[in-house]
Amino acid sequence: MTHKFKVRQMVRLAQPGFSDTRMNSGNVYEVVRLMPADQTGEVSYRIKSGMTEKAVREGEIRSA
């Protein structure tokens, strides 16, 4: 599977979790690293906004 997003591309969480909604409502993240596919075959990314960096699967993010 190939990556849909590229490094330095701006993305948003598709469905923010509880802590994301309270702390980072509407936050835009920058893709900082492309990760390999997991056991299910879905690729992952490292995304960052300010001091917050997290790993997400491709299905968890959308273009900003």
Topology overview:
Blueprint: E1 10-13, H1 18-23, E2 29-35, E3 44-49, E4 52-57, E5 61-63
Antiparallel strand pairs: 1-2, 1-5, 2-3, 3-4
Number of strands: 5
Give the topology string: H per helix, E per strand.
EHEEEE
The outline comes out as globular
Give the N-terminus to C-terminus distance in angstroms: 22 Å
Low-confidence stretches are: none
Instruction: Return the structural class.
Output: mainly beta
Mean pLDDT across the residues is 87
Radius of gyration: 11 Å
Helix share bin: under 10%
Strand content: 35-45%
How would you explain this protein's 3D organization?
The protein has one helix spanning 18-23; strands at residues 10-13, 29-35, 44-49, 52-57, 61-63. The protein is mainly β and 64 residues long. The chain has a five-stranded antiparallel β-sheet, with no helix packed on it. A hairpin with a 2-residue loop joins strand 3 (44-49) and strand 4 (52-57). The longest helix has 6 residues, at 18-23. The two termini are 22 Å apart. The relative contact order is 0.32. The mean pLDDT is 87.
Please provide a brief summary of the model.
Helix content is 9%, strand content 41%. The chain has one helix and five strands, in the order E-H-E-E-E-E.
